[in-house]
């Protein structure tokens, strides 16, 4: 994750300015809807096996898909495809934990680790999926119990709660039920799940791929990274979702549908990470499972996700109520793809497609 994020965040302003204005006029608040499909196609031309591009603006969501959802069987990507969202899981976990914190003393009173420390863990810049010593081909289908994860130093909020504070015993429910009661059911998100031991994706599935050192992809069994046991990323990176649901989450969070003012303010209270934001504009700050960063059309909030075979960026721009989600089906994109990806996200945050 560190290498990947460094590449994503260290882009110069110069690179950004060409990427952001690649299509359309950035000063024009509206954009021809056909352009949404062109943006998805461009990401595939830049080297992603498939790309899904989603924009939500007020209550309206538009999505475009391009490329192949499964190379070996030549299945085309569809807007409703499910993918692994990696660390885009963290804000959902933060919302669940904030509810629990305020609903009683269910959280551990550890003298050394506060809730804020845990949710701001490593400023969110570390992705468990990128640790070569933790995830190897030999552990691809291994089930990691919460206790084993803690022993490996993989302390995520729900893991800590379940193993050290008996979170699951206290509430009598697994963590998945907490996401369900505080997010999925109120928002009627029926296509999002947080699998712990299921190794395949629900249908329709968007497969994720590993490129070779040139960034070339094949549909062979080695390069298809989709199937794996997601327990290693419990609470941190195990979301499986379509782009539409990710956008709905961010729009709803900022519309006040998930947290009240007290808890929402806590979530958005950020610390500097000393990293640069998208395209090198301004700084990147981190709150409770949420980044804030400058864009040419206002401060945006959201999260990046990188997990084997996938790279996702989901951001919300409160100044115009736009949410943008871009999903790539590789986690080692070449530089031209990274540029196209950032330009696309900025366009989704700044221009309404209709
Ligand atoms: C939208 O863009 C497409 C492709 O550039 C173009 O063919 C079409 O005429 C445009 N539609 C409108 C209403 O501008
Ligand atoms: C979004 O909703 C707000 C409030 O109803 C409205 O003022 C605004 O024009 C809408 N934006 C778009 C782009 O439709
Ligand atoms: C943003 O959109 C939501 C609907 O998802 C709406 O409830 C809210 O009022 C809008 N906010 C603004 C500032 O337009
Ligand atoms: C805010 O939400 C939390 C969690 O749902 C709840 O426990 C708390 O009472 C709420 N606070 C206010 C001021 O409504
Ligand atoms: C995980 O799934 C495997 C394979 O189906 C099964 O053998 C194992 O018991 C499961 N572990 C847990 C903790 O559910
Ligand atoms: C792999 O990518 C490189 C650089 O983009 C290209 O020159 C080469 O032809 C590709 N190789 C194959 C086998 O597609
Ligand atoms: C399978 O894909 C990987 C990654 O793209 C590549 O390095 C490898 O050479 C491929 N193997 C075969 C047999 O095509
Ligand atoms: C950011 O830089 C400041 C000043 O050098 C330092 O005190 C702080 O620990 C750094 N924060 C992180 C998250 O690295």
Structural description of this entry:
Residues 1-20 form the signal peptide. The model is unreliable at 1-23, 105-111, 122-127 and 158-172 (pLDDT under 50). The protein contains twelve helices and 13 strands. With 354 residues, the chain is an alpha+beta fold. The strands form three sheets. The chain has a nine-stranded antiparallel β-sheet with strand order 4-3-2-12-11-10-9-8-7, sandwiched between helices. The chain has one domain: DD-peptidase/beta-lactamase superfamily (Beta-lactamase, 3-Layer(aba) Sandwich), CATH 3.40.710. α2 crosses α12 (335-350) and α4 (90-102) crosses α9. The protein has helices at 2-9, 13-20, 34-45, 90-102, 115-119, 146-151, 157-164, 167-171, 175-187, 243-254, 261-268, 335-350; strands spanning 30-31, 50-57, 60-70, 75-76, 83-84, 240-241, 271-276, 283-286, 291-295, 298-307, 310-317, 322-328, 352-353. The site of one 2-acetamido-2-deoxy-beta-D-glucopyranose (NAG) has 4 residues, from β7.
Report a brief summary of the structure.
The protein is an alpha+beta fold and 354 residues long. The protein has helices at residues 2-9, 13-20, 34-45, 90-102, 115-119, 146-151, 157-164, 167-171, 175-187, 243-254, 261-268, 335-350, and strands at residues 30-31, 50-57, 60-70, 75-76, 83-84, 240-241, 271-276, 283-286, 291-295, 298-307, 310-317, 322-328, 352-353. The protein has a single domain (2-353), classed as DD-peptidase/beta-lactamase superfamily (Beta-lactamase, 3-Layer(aba) Sandwich).
């Amino acid at each position: 994750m560190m290498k990947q994020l460094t590449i994503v965040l260290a882009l110069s302003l110069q690179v950004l300015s060409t990427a952001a204005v690649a299509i359309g006029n950035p000063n024009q608040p509206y954009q021809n809807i056909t352009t949404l499909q062109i943006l998805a196609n461009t990401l595939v031309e830049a080297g992603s096996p498939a790309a899904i591009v989603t924009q939500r603006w007020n209550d309206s969501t538009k999505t475009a898909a391009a490329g192949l959802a499964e190379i070996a069987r030549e299945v085309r990507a569809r807007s409703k495809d499910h993918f692994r969202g990696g660390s885009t899981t963290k804000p959902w976990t933060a919302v669940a934990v904030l509810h629990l914190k305020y609903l009683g003393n269910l959280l551990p009173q550890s003298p050394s680790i506060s809730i804020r420390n845990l949710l701001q863990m490593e400023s969110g810049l570390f992705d468990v999926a990128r640790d070569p010593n933790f995830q190897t081909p030999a552990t691809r289908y291994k089930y990691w119990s919460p206790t084993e994860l803690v022993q490996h130093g993989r302390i995520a909020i729900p893991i800590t709660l379940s193993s050290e504070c008996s979170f699951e015993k206290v509430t009598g429910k697994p963590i998945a039920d907490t996401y369900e009661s505080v997010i999925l059911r109120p928002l009627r998100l029926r296509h999002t799940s947080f699998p712990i031991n299921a190794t395949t994706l629900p249908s329709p599935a968007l497969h994720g791929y590993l490129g070779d050192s040139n960034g070339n992809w094949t549909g062979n069994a080695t390069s298809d990274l989709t199937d794996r046991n997601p327990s290693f990323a419990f609470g941190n990176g195990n979301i499986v979702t379509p782009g539409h649901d990710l956008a709905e989450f961010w729009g709803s969070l900022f519309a006040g549908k998930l947290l009240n003012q007290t808890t929402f303010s806590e979530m958005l209270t950020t610390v500097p990470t000393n990293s640069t934001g998208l395209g090198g504009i301004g700084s990147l700050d981190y709150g409770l499972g949420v980044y804030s960063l400058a864009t040419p059309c206002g401060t945006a909030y959201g999260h990046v996700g990188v997990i084997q075979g996938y790279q996702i960026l989901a951001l919300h721009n409160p100044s115009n109520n736009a949410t943008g989600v871009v999903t790539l089906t590789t986690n080692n994109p070449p530089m031209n793809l990274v540029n196209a990806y950032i330009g696309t996200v900025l366009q989704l945050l700044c221009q309404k497609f209709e």
